[in-house]
Amino acid sequence: MCKYNPTGGICEVLYEEYNKVFKDYINGRVLPSLQGKKDEALVKETERRWSDHKVMTRWLVRFFHYLDRYFVPKRKVPPLQESALLCFYDLVFGEFNNQIRDAVVSPIDREREGEDIDQALVKNIVSIYVDVGQGSMEYYERDFEEAMFKATAAFYSTKAPNWIKNESYNNYMLKNTGQKKLLEIVEYELISVYETELKEKKQVDESLGGLEET
């Protein structure tokens, strides 16, 4: 069909129809399946739909690979896989991102409390933000990371007063762990606010340690 005009004509029509297939399917099947779901049920359904979407994308990219070879670079339009993944993200996360993100952050907070959670499920949802970026962290940083850090800061700000009263200096500092970027956010709540109390607690611990040695 594209043999005599590999950069236009029927190629343009096929490219548009390729994208329309995804839009119609997501609007007609995926979004209705997510409506009314909350928390873990919403996350699980999103994970299932994303998995199906990737399978569908993989096969259609193979069927229309000819477009990727000639039409896409000539017209400077998104490659087939990128276009399909973005279609899912724009339509699904454009409507449900806040609910999905909150449903993922909530079990992360529960895990900090010592509760066992479905880590694989959380990881799979977070990976969607990364996969859509096709090597870029743009979507993860913009639509998930910032909100997660704010929730993390709020979590530690509520825990710090209790920890500073009941934990030793060493145990308190052990709780202040994590990735560098996360530490930058929680540092104020964990360290700076209680700088004087921590110094006093450290002195007490060191004094007690000295007595034990003698």
Automatic annotation (TrEMBL):
Pfam families from the entry? Cullin (PF00888)
Where's the Cullin N-terminal domain?
12-175
Endpoints of the signal sequence: none
InterPro entries referenced in this protein's UniProt entry, alphabetically = Cullin, Cullin_N, Cullin_repeat-like_dom_sf
Give the PANTHER family listed for this entry. Answer: CULLIN (PTHR11932)
The entry assigns this protein to a family as follows: Belongs to the cullin family.
| This protein's name | Cullin N-terminal domain-containing protein
